[in-house]
Design goal:
FAD/NAD(P)-binding domain
Length: 378
């Protein structure tokens, strides 16, 4: 009998920790060890709001060690460097090794720079609350007020609108915000009516779009796009895609192009090993489920339940049957668009629904009340 090791203190990992905490007797004396390099859980859906000044940092982060202590789950503050599947061992960057009987990989995703080393050195990104604070502080002090966001997906659009809101809130009217998207339109996975709505709103905020373009050259003082446009003295923010951490991509298991582990119907990818959240690629109708909080929570819950079944000696595991409740693209000027339970939603109603879900998904009463206060007062 060995330990249960959970890699990642995101939505999926903390949901799994809650399940294990509620069923301690079923663990049969096994320890649950949650591994994460960060000491905080960062509420990713509201990080753009944090950089835009609407949500304060204290309401977007949670102390992982304190939270797990209340659950009776062990916390290992370290970065996973590799997993030896044969030896059933997780090796940390500091050289420490953790043996396991059962493994749950739910380490989320990180920004993908696609091998552009120089851009990675100089560009800002949004993977954490620290990143959000860095962007906000840089926006405040950046004298030229020219910003180039690479990536026209959810994150890029949210970053752009929140920077515009932040500047307007501080009565800065002279600014230039550019969004560059390699594909022929922004938000290409969404229906045309949503893309049209978002484009119109970006225009309202004086955010310039450059679709079908990418960065062809960067110097210390300028960025040149593939369409020939040169933008001088701009702050570069990268939001052009994500991938799983390196140790996941090195695992000898089938993965999708983003390095997500392809899992079966029970969310397992190897004997005694499961994946959940952004690190898992659950295939439905030939495509991996998109990365979303609702799926991370459900997958973390079910993976933990299946590990408990294995602990009890039960061979029949639960199958994952995802239900998509919908999605929203929130923008900082009280507008959003998307679908909820199959019903199209846009405008202020969608914006309110987004924050209602954020409040509901928060991990403590203090955070729920704090987010609600920020929305009403900031």
């Amino acid at each position: 009998m060995g330990d249960i090791v959970v890699i990642g203190a995101g939505f999926a990992g903390l949901e799994a920790a809650r399940v294990f905490s509620r069923h301690r007797r079923a663990l049969g004396g096994r320890r649950v060890i949650l591994v994460d390099a960060k000491r905080t859980f960062d509420f990713l859906p509201i990080l753009p709001d944090m950089l835009g000044g609407r949500i304060v940092r204290d309401h977007a982060v949670l102390d992982v060690a304190e939270y797990l202590e209340r659950l009776g789950v062990n916390f290992e503050n370290g970065e996973a460097a590799s997993v030896d599947m044969a030896a059933r061992e997780v090796r940390l960057k500091d050289g420490h090794a953790l043996g396991y009987e059962y493994l749950l990989v739910c380490c989320g995703s990180v920004t993908n720079f696609y091998g552009a080393v120089e851009i990675e050195k100089h560009a800002l990104k949004l993977d954490s609350a620290d990143d959000a604070a860095m962007i906000q502080n840089t926006v405040v002090t950046y004298p030229q007020k020219k910003f180039l966001i690479v990536g026209g997906g959810y994150t890029g659009i949210e970053i752009a609108t929140n920077i515009a809101r932040f500047l307007r809130r501080h009565r800065i009217r002279k600014y230039n915000i550019h969004v560059v998207e390699r594909q022929e339109d922004i938000l290409t996975a969404l229906p045309e009516w949503m893309r049209d709505y978002c484009r119109l709103n970006l225009c309202r905020l004086r955010i310039q779009l450059h679709v079908g373009a990418s960065i062809s050259q960067r110097t210390e003082s300028s960025v040149t796009l593939s369409n020939g446009l040169r933008i001088d003295d701009c702050l570069l923010i990268w939001a052009a895609g994500v991938q799983t951490p390196g140790f996941v991509r090195r695992l000898p298991s089938e993965q999708d192009p983003q390095g997500r582990l392809k899992v079966g119907k029970t969310l397992s990818f190897a004997e005694g090993a499961f994946a959940a959240g952004d690190a898992a690629a659950f295939m439905k109708k030939g495509r991996a489920l998109r990365m979303a909080v609702q799926f991370s929570l459900n997958e973390g819950h079910l993976a933990a339940e299946n590990i408990l079944r294995l602990c009890a000696g039960r061979k029949k595991l639960k199958a994952y049957r995802p239900v998509d409740l919908g999605y929203l693209v929130p923008m900082a000027n009280f507008r959003a668009c998307g679908t909820v339970l199959g019903v199209p939603v846009l405008g202020f109603a969608g914006w309110i629904l987004h924050y209602a879900m954020c409040i509901y998904r928060s991990l403590s009463l203090r955070h729920r009340l704090g987010i609600a206060r920020d929305i009403l007062l900031r």
